[in-house]
Amino acid sequence: MAKKNNRRAKIVGTDIEVDITEKKDVIIESHDDDHEHDHHHKETFITKYIFSIDHKMISKQYLITGLIMGIVGIAMSLLFRLQLAWPEESFGIFDVLLGKWATDGVMDPNVYLALVTIHGTIMVFFVLTAGLSGTFSNLLIPLQIGARDMASGFLNMISYWLFFISSAIMIASLFVEAGPAAAGWTIYPPLSALPQAQPGSAAGMTLWLVSMAFFIASSLLAALNYIVTVLNLRTAGMTMTRLPLTVWAFLVTAIIGVVSFPVLLSAALLLIMDRSFGTSFFLSDIFIQGEVLHYQGGSPVLFEHLFWFLGHPEVYIVLLPALGIASEVISTNARKPIFGYRAMVGSILAIAFLSTIVWGHHMFITGMNPFLGSVFTFTTLLIAIPSAVKAFNYITTIWKGNIQFNPGMLFAIGLVSTFITGGLTGIILGDSALDINLHDTYFVVAHFHLVMGISALYGLFAGVYHWYPRMFGRMMNKNLGYIHFWITAISAYGVFFPMHFVGMAGLPRRYYTNTNFPYFDDVANINVVITLFALLAGAAQLVFLYNFISSMFYGKKAVMNPWKSNTLEWTAPIKHMHGNWPGKIPHVFRWPYDYSKPGSKVDFIPQNVPLKLSLIHISEPTRPERIGDGGVCLKKK
Q1: Which residues 6+ apart lie within 8 Å of 612 measured at CB?
Q2: Helices 300-334 + 245-276 axis angle, to 10
Q3: Do the bridges between strand 632-636 and strand 291-292 make them parallel or antiparallel, or are there none, so unpaired?
Q4: Is the pLDDT of residue 622 over 60?
Q5: How many CB atoms are closer than 10 A to CB 65?
Q6: Where residue 18 falls among pLDDT bands split at 50, 70, 90?
Q7: Residue 229's closest CA among 296, 152, 129, 305?
Q8: DSSP per-residue letters across 252-281
Q9: 144 vs 238: CA distance, rounded Å
Q10: How many CB atoms lie within 10 A of CB 612?
Q11: Cα(335)–Cα(523) distance, integer angstroms
Q12: In this structure, what DSSP letter does residue 557 have?
């Protein structure tokens, strides 16, 4: 029915009341009459929680699976840190967890390399790729673009279960007789290509390759789903330049994955051929214990090219979603528009392109032509420009903002810190001349753990703290969040900052003990300090796990929009329902960063508030169970 001017009405899905100031008539419709999508069908436990096709439930499945894998990966790192700090000591926990691989509590050298290998694999692929991107791409893409669900819910379900199968196979490989894969997470031949090379090269390596084949299939299906959803299912008014930077990051990440993951799959398949069918793609002139093997004509450097063509884009597959999350969290909690939105989008696109032409900087000491090395040095240093754009824009967004220092914001600021400090050492390693002295030392370990590992973990934590109310309808404990952040932040720098100096001293990575080299006796005490900080960081994650689990049941009930954010996910009810919105999908009228707009009486204006409507006030926050009840939809006649 038609209403006259100067009436007040509530915008659908928000707590904002508006004055209708337009000259034209406005039609006010009830939600109850126009929801064609909300056909409630009877759901069983299996269809709701296990084989769900609802993107919100699938995001929780990714998150919980990723956290479980993260517990395994971090536990492995603590085990080998104990070995590095006190290499001659006997530990009862080794006896309990490692069994025959730690006779009398002393770690076997073979299992040390296996722990390093599986730790790296789990953290890079299963936690920081699937756990981070799988969780937040699934949760946020449909909600932030105004879609009912992913383009294909069934494909979405399949992609999760392929990831789950992959995770199960990787965990199963820990229990095979000869031990898990032990060729490093980069699985260079010949250690990975010859089953007889070492214990971890047998069945454990085969299971690693099978697991990664499932993982790559999962990643490709998910990435195609994300791309189609963003391009085709945006709500009315949601142009590409009105997309939140989170969605831009998820979209570009998916595109990088589609381009680069098939190359790793080809490398894995060729490696399986070398291992099982007698081919020689990566093997030539191999001697084992005086025996000459029949392999001729292959090249392990070919494998490095194939691996790192995925391996370096993988850094940004891990990092870009974290940077997108940081953009949203920082802007929301600084109560300021993101600085340089188009420059941020441009930098995401530039990083994506450049990430595919820099892989050679991992291979400077393979005998590469010096001219080619200089080309890769140039492209590597070039990627610092869009990275710096992002860093400066984050700092400028924070500058003079009305900052809300909640745990999500602290982790987002921590991400900016580690992104800068880790990135600066990347300039050194990206130089082919300087890299020769530092290659395969702890300097490299420190660099990529800061710039990729810790930064992406901070992005994951920032996302969990920020969108936990959206996922579970409750708030996480803020004080426990502060404890988690400060102990983690101090410990992370305590672990990786000293590693730079150990690396510059020449200490090589992946050695399970350095006691045979008197030259490194001086850095033994530093290894002890690093391990103590690592144990402290591990303890801090127990605080997070307690907070995460207990808040599901005992956390304070969340209001509809606890952070007073502008994006569309805060306009939908939290309760489990297909279709996300009980009525019509909200229309979008503005970009997602209208914070502290001059002339506005409130410091945020959601995307579904029409441009020509003047804000009056924000009413008391609505409880989750009332969200969507009695709302109205405004549209021009």
Answers
A1: 21, 22
A2: 160
A3: unpaired
A4: no
A5: 22
A6: low
A7: 152
A8: HHHHHHHHHHHHHHHHHHHHHHHHHS---S
A9: 9
A10: 13
A11: 46
A12: B
Pairing of strands 614-618, 16-19: antiparallel
- So what's the pLDDT on residue 460? 97
SS3 letters across 450-503:
HHHHHHHHHHHHHHHHHHHHHHHCECCCHHHHHHHHHHHHHHHHHHHHHHHHHH
Cβ atoms 141, 469 nearer than 8 A = no
Distance CA 375, CA 524 (A): 38
pLDDT in tens, 485-500: 999 999 999 999 999 9
- Residue 604 carries which DSSP code? B
CA dihedral 17, 21, 22, 25 (to 10 degrees): 70
Q: 293, 429 in Cβ contact below 8 A?
A: no
φ, ψ of residue 452 in degrees (nearest 5)? -110, -55
Encode pLDDT of 517-532 as tens digits: 888 988 999 999 999 9
Gap between the Cα atoms of 370 and 392, Å rounded: 33
Rounded Cα–Cα distance for residues 164 and 154 (Å): 15
As a whole number, mean pLDDT of residues 379-399 equals 96
DSSP character string of 371-386: HHHHHHHHHHHHTHHH
Question: Are the C-beta atoms of residues 561 and 470 closer than 8 Å to each other?
Answer: no
Rounded average pLDDT over 19-23: 44
- Reference 187, options 279, 101, 114, 107; nearest CA is 114
pLDDT tens across 25-74, in order?
333 333 333 444 444 567 788 888 899 999 999 999 999 999 999 999 99
Average confidence score pLDDT of the chain: 89
User: What secondary structure letter does DSSP report for 183?
Assistant: S
- In angstroms, the CA 571 to CA 239 distance is 19
> In this structure, what token pair is assigned to residue 179?
């031990």
Look up tokens 């879609």; give the residue.
147
Residue type, 562: P
Ramachandran region, residue 530 (left: φ > 0; alpha: ψ -120 to 50; beta: rest): alpha
3-state class of 180 per DSSP? strand
The pLDDT assigned to 4 comes to: 42
Residue 478 reports pLDDT greater than 90: yes
Could you tell me the end-to-end alpha-carbon distance of the chain, in angstroms, rounded to an integer? 10
Strand order in the sheet with 614-618: 8-10, 16-19, 614-618
> Which pair of tokens denotes residue 627?
């969200």
The dihedral built from the CA positions of residue 39, 44, 46 and 48, taken in this order, carries a sign that is positive
Kindly report whether the peptide bond that precedes residue 573 is cis, defined as omega within 30 degrees of 0.
no
Least confident among 317-321, 401-405, 598-602: 598-602
Cα-based distances in Å from 270 to 125, 160, 194, 485: 20, 26, 13, 43
Q: Which stretches within 277-369 are classed as H helix?
A: 300-334, 341-355
60-69: pLDDT as tens digits: 999 999 999 9
CA dist 120 and 179 (Å) reads 16
* DSSP state, residue 508: B
pLDDT (tens digit, 9 = 90+) per residue, 91-117? 999 999 998 999 889 999 999 999 999
CB crowding 511-521: b at 16 or more within 10 Å, else e: bbebeeeeebe
User: Which residues, 6+ apart, have CB-to-CB distance to 523 below 8 Å?
Assistant: 502, 505, 507, 514
Kindly report which listed range (27-41, 190-204, 365-379, 581-595) carries the lowest average pLDDT score: 27-41
Q: What is the pLDDT of residue 618?
A: 44
- With pLDDT > 70 as the criterion, what percentage of the chain qualifies? 90
- Dihedral over alpha carbons 429, 435, 440, 443 (to 10 degrees): -50
